[in-house]
Automatic annotation (TrEMBL):
The protein's name in its UniProt record: Putative redox protein
Species whose genome carries this gene: Tenacibaculum skagerrakense
Classification via InterPro entries: KH_dom-like_a/b, OsmC/Ohr_fam, OsmC/Ohrsf
Top-rank taxon: Bacteria
Length: 139
């Protein structure tokens, strides 16, 4: 079983710097309305970015293996935050927007489904606490 260690360090006010096991750093902060300085991403928004990034990595790698291509991919994650504390995402919708010439809709749909149903661990984590839906759009 693999383990990861992340160290998060308080910098000032509500700003934190967090490392990644590969050495990259990110800043975490909150909105002005909540007392922060908006100098970094909010923790909940980072969760949505993690979901998009995890599935996006899968999609690119699987598409290469299936010898199908696209010129651009955008992943938009829309999430509903509950009103009561602790606030969490109870509904999440992930849109995959593919751009390119001669897109193979059938293969790309299979690629996305493999990520969603089999490979994306962050997607599986989200399914533990939220209803997750997906949509694929071809341009």
């Amino acid at each position: 079983m693999a383990s990861n260690i992340v160290t998060t360090e308080w910098k000032k006010n509500l700003l934190f710097k967090s490392d990644n096991p590969n050495g990259a750093n990110i800043l975490i902060d909150t909105s002005y309305a909540n007392g922060g300085n908006e100098a970094g991403a909010s923790p909940k928004a980072l969760m949505l970015s993690s979901l998009a990034g995890c599935s996006g990595l899968d999609v690119v790698m699987i598409a290469e293996k299936m010898r199908t291509s696209f010129e651009d991919l955008k992943i938009i994650v829309e999430a509903n935050l509950t009103d009561e504390h602790p606030k969490y995402y109870d509904k999440v919708h992930v849109k995959y927007l593919f751009d390119g010439k001669d897109l193979d809709h059938e293969k790309l749909t299979k690629v996305v489904n493999l990520s969603v149903e089999k490979y994306c661990g962050v997607m599986e984590m989200f399914r533990q606490f939220a209803t997750v839906t997906t949509e694929i759009i071809f341009n």
